[in-house]
Model the fold of this input.
Amino acid sequence: MNRLSVPAVTKAKPRGKPYKLADGMGLALLVEPTGAKLWRFRYRYGGKETMLSLGRFPEVSLADARIARDKARAQLREGVNPSTSRRQARIEREVASGNTFRAVAAEWVEANKNQWIPTHVVRVQSSLDRDILPSLGDRPIADISAAEVLAVIRRVEKRDALDQAKRALQRVTAIFALGVATLRCPANPARELRGALKKAPKVQHRASLRLDELPKYLERYDDLHGDPTTRAALALDLLTIVRVSELVGARWDEIDFDEAMWTIPAERMKMAREHRVPLSTQAVAILRDMKPLSGSGELVFPSPSKPRRPLSGNALLVALRRMGYAAGELTVHGFRSTFSTWAHESGFDSDVIEVQLSHVDKNAVRSAYNNAQYMEKRRLLLQAWADTIDAQREGAKVIPIRRRKRR
Done:
């Protein structure tokens, strides 16, 4: 028989010690000296007396506490321990929350990020946040079908971002593989989609410029109007031939004007090793022109719309399209090939060229030695390249520098 009433529960006052108000059939209200009112259900299971917490009043009303008690008593009649049942339900909820695609994706990134350079971690997470997680993130990974994955990847394809779609599918496949390995999904539906994506057209080698095409490029560049940050980034990339990610992430604290040196830290390099770029007088001039525009911040080339974020590499591609270069005809990365061809044809030492391009020497000791040993040669190399560009702009015929090879 029920003994408590709502007014009795509401008016119960705290005392110097905890005390209980019994409601019947094992249910009681525990009133703490702090004023907290806690529902408790006492029962015997396996010959032992056990207490089950049913919540706090008034969040759990008297009626709700009685329903919870009756449910626990029904479990006891079926031979089920209510405490064990609740603990199991909590574990299942926790497991379920860790079984979403988002949770497994986070584990996959965490497991791999020590093997990736920081900029790649950002790229991977941005790709997931933009293209994958909005659709699949909160779904239980075991419930996601191949058709759902394909629909998500197709949306990336429709942006004509075929390479991004390919990479997105690779990442989704790897995340499902982790889900399978940790017993959170029975199969990897993304593996079934091999061959389902459009093939990106083969990029012709004309993605880079021949030296005799440089005057036309410079003419188009001079006619390019728009964001001065994008124009400056294009100009500096041609002079320093760094990778696009290294360029757009440039920070003012990496630039030493006194030494005319740009030191890119290891965490921003593709091969996770510090790279020093001697700055030609033309490169220094571009950076000095950027100082009034972005010198008050950390980034040399901030995004026009989000100043705390770097300029996107896509902005440079858009600039090339505005200059009249079609997709596959020229990329910013192609400047590196143009420079390499010119430098080799001009007779510069191949090792010096490779070090300046930050290509990895398999011999780490030799590579570190060359990086320092060739610094003056690299400075002469980049200055000669900058002077060649100026000569091309002025319409002069450039004769390759034939350097006598050492015997």
Summary: The beta strands are 19-24, 27-31, 37-45, 48-57, 255-256, 261-264, 275-278.
